[in-house]
Amino acid sequence: MKHFKQLLMLCILCVSVFLAPLNAFAAATSSSSSASSSSSSTTSSTNAATDDSLQRIKQKGTLVVGTSADYPPYEFTTKKNGKTEYVGFEMDVAKQFAKDLGVKLVIKNMDFDSLLVALESHKVDTVIAGMNITPERKKSVDFSKPYYTGHKYFLINKADKAKYKSVNSFKGKTVGAQNGAMEYNLVKQNIPNVQEKGLAKITSLVIALQSHKVDGVLMDEATAKAYANNNSNLYTFNSHIKIDSGGIAMAFPKGDKSLEAAANQTVDKINKEDLINKKWIPQASKYMKSYKKHNTVASYWTFFAKGVEYTLIITVIAVFFGFLLGTLFALMRLSQNKILHGIAVCYIEFIRGTPMLVQIMFVYFGIGAVIQSLPALVAGIIAVSVNSGAYVAEVIRSGIQSLPIGQTEAARSLGMTKKQTFHFIIMPQAMRNIWPALGNEFITLLKDSSLVSTIGVGELMYQTQLVQADTYKGVLPLFITMMIYFVLTFTLTRILNYFEGRMKHAH
Amino acid sequence: MPTKMIEIQHLKKEFNGNEVLKDISEEVDKGQVICVIGPSGAGKSTFLRCLNVLEKPTAGKVLFEGQDLTNISDPELDKLREKMGMVFQGFNLFPNMTVVNNIKIAPIKVKGLSEEEATKTAMELLKKVGLENKANVYPDSLSGGQKQRVAIVRSLAMDPEVMLFDEPTSALDPEMVDEVLNVMQELANSGMTMVVVTHEMGFAKEVADQIWFMADGYIQESGKPEDFFSHPTSDRAKEFLKKVLK
Known about the structure:
The complex is a heterodimer.
Chain A: H1 2-32, H2 53-60, E1 62-67, E2 76-80, E3 83-87, H3 89-101, E4 104-109, H4 115-120, E5 126-127, H5 135-140, E6 141-143, E7 152-157, E8 174-178, H6 182-190, E9 195-199, H7 202-210, E10 216-220, H8 221-230, E11 234-238, E12 251-253, H9 257-273, H10 275-293, H11 301-334, H12 338-352, H13 356-370, H14 376-401, H15 405-413, H16 418-448, H17 460-471, H18 475-505
Parallel strand pairs in A: 1-4, 1-5, 8-9, 8-10
Antiparallel strand pairs in A: 2-3, 6-12, 7-10, 7-11
Chain B: E1 4-15, E2 18-29, E3 33-37, H1 44-51, E4 59-64, E5 67-68, H2 74-81, E6 84-87, H3 99-109, H4 115-128, H5 144-156, E7 162-166, H6 174-189, E8 193-197, H7 201-207, E9 210-215, E10 218-223, H8 225-230, H9 235-245
Parallel strand pairs in B: 3-8, 3-9, 6-7, 7-8
Antiparallel strand pairs in B: 1-2, 1-4, 4-5, 9-10
Helix pairs in contact in B: 3-4, 3-5, 5-6
Main location (chain A): membrane
Transmembrane segments (chain A): 310-331, 362-384, 475-496
Membrane topology (chain A): Multi-pass membrane protein
């Protein structure tokens, strides 16, 4: 009976895990083939023929906008009363659009190269992120009319001002650009023999520039100027690279025609009144200036505090469920039942054999495609717990197997049931033996929780990136974060040692 | 008319095609002390472990108070094992518990005794074997003889109807053998039903009601100790006794 319940639970787990990729693949293939009706099989709501995208937004009352808020003056973060706020002229575009629709605006901040995936898997309703219209992108998403066109500028170290003056001076040099952004292709196409370095965040690229990992970074005019103005060691100049882009526009999932039409109305109005150049860019610059005065890293302690809070939440919950899963799968692996044993072996080998970063993104985008409302925090906790479970299972199994069989036999011959034997005799002794290994696993988990920043969970690493973007400083926030992680893990080690000592005493 | 406690019918045990027990049928009466002796590798320990189904027999039956242990549910088997104490060659005390907790855990968890009742029983039994001053130490700090006496007490605390001993003195230094055998002898005198696998011929001769001589997976001979030791009938037994008695 007990086995049956375990089996049932696992079946459900397996089915959901294996269905998720099918749906995700179906969505991916149907949307990239572009010609026919898009992603119709899995998400019925987005069929072009019976498009209800606008109605859907109005019904739920929120417009979810995906962006990558590391791109001043397009979009970046400031703090107001200790709270993160997304500002920049594109955020004004988003506000205007939401206002015109009569719905509430929700901003989802993530890496630029995750935005299109998020759009296709309907994590966001639209992407407003300085995204240029290109033929490649048009294959998988639809665009509104453009509302802005900017030149491409090189950002370089001021010391190199004499060395780099045009595109040609970067011949054979290393140039950085944001992954998934149009600049990435422009670098390849326009500079001969270039060595290109692609990173997910503009902030990381600027750090790379300052530490001379790259000689220059190609980015949008407005952004490049913002950095140069806020950091006296940086300098920017126009690349004069010709762009065949149709300008910057909002992106929509293929087929969301009615929503796109509504967006075009907003864009028309913005263009007619020239709101971006006249009102919003000056406003954004003001934000940047006003923050320049007091954007010392220390004044961002609330960001770090918030990050620590989320990191601890993720760690505590994932340790709990990881331990639970680990115990369950360790017992299944040790079980006489061949099916349970097989499932446990598959789970452990598969999870240990795939990178955690991939697992996190898979849970968020893959399973998230089936369960639309899955929040990033929950997805992150699931991924981390499931990952930890596999490692904990092996630790526990080794702990149980290291005990002499005589312990079990003695307990059973005293009339104890299997369960009592496990609970009162085996587990306490196994725990004492595996405690150091288990502690190691928990510390790894705490550190690895930083990976969930990639799906936009506001834990410590994510907050660090916000601080980097806000302060235009790359290394100091990283150093602070490193120290915070160390204090956290060191405290955890002390706590674990304390319990280890107590268990030794009881011997 | 003595009542049958354990009946063994055509018991067989194989390990991966290797027949360790070939065909054994015997009976243990209530209050009897059986000593199982024989050369190494004869299957004595396997036989004893089949009696409380720590090893599941390949064929045949083991009846305890009329119930076939080889063919009942796990909960029923757990219930019957409460009545069959077992003492191992390697003691198998729980190293993470004090002596008194080693003794108390099964009565509390299995029989549902209260903490006070269990402690009281444990202390009384410890006193009987002269170890009441060791109640609160961990097994690590005990000598082998003391460990084995604690192990016996741990089984007795469950108030069993039969005690199985699997070479209880084989892992002990010679000077400690007697302290364990004395406890076992007292136990036998008090009327406990016992099945003892042993190499202690003196003990077998003195205490056993019956000797079962095992070799090659069979019980070759069984009888009263005075008959067996003076007039063994089988060649295997004669050969064995010549070696061990000199």
